Amino acid sequence: METKLPDVSVNINEKSAFDYPIFIGENLLKNAQLYVSSYTKASKFLIVTNKTVANLYRESLNIQNAEWMVLEDGEQYKNFDTYKLIMDKALEMRLERKDAFIAFGGGVVGDITGFCAATYLRGIDFIQIPTTLLAQVDSSVGGKVAINTQFGKNLVGAFYQPKLVLADTSTLCTLDKRQFKTGLAEVVKYAFIEKTAMCNFNFLNFLLDNSELIKSKDLGILKEMIKICCEIKARVVNEDEQEKGLRAILNFGHTYAHAIEKVTNYTHFTHGEAVAIGMRLVFDLAKMRNMISSDYYNLAIKLLSKFALTYVLPDSTTHEALVEAMLFDKKVQDNKVRFVLPVDVGKVVITSDVML
After folding, report:
1. 8-174: CATH number
2. Of these residues, 144, 153, 223, 331, which one is catalytic?
3. Would you call 235 a catalytic residue per the annotation?
């Protein structure tokens, strides 16, 4: 078997050494060795995953000359302690610069494995094999890798691109309802930014029209949906790899979301749930500032409601705590928090003039 053409390609610039393919489809894991061999010259691999994915798919991912590192599940483990465990394992294996890490799991696994790859021996190859909807549409693409600290989310990290993204949609069939919905929050985000991202898929209407098929996990529709998300993100990353301008739009809803995750100790909400709350809050803010029409506000709320992305903050979460957390956000400039706010269907602006 020969590898097929990529479904999406990330081409950061003509001279970049970090151009890479994204493959999307059913049952790709069974041919993972072929894809891996085609896009890296590594002879030895450290596969990093979590307990849930290992229990489900360890026998399905047969990579030669690989050892496994199985982590605990959860955002609270994306920290220095886990980073040290992974790095110690890589050193025990004596991975060399020509070798590679493989991130096999969701966003937490991808983020921390990528950061290990970026810093091990000053950088070795890594491959993303995302198994959650959130990772397949967002975190596995674009090269943001990081860990959390007591001060906030993703404050220690790097921009470090993978050699390959292999998104097997079959793995989505084993996601529970909560994890699937958390990925849908990132999907919906793309509908709110696509025109500013220089795309015009009419993605908002696509999601409304196909909501029942999406919720029933129709793999044909899911592949099309994931491909659109990856194409939107690739377009943005190709223009602005290191978030010096346009790429900040990918943080739509995330300024609030990261603060919410921080003040609830990364245990109350999944990342997508926090993003859903964050998107609702920025729509409320934009409406209050007369930046969007009532029709668009209502359409946005309809889309969030269609996928039941209607979470609320716990009563114990105070405004003061959220503001303090937002001031530690990595996008803060001159002690001002930057927000991405909607202005029209699929269009957003970046502003720092919001009074907290």
Report:
1. 3.40.50.1970
2. 144
3. no
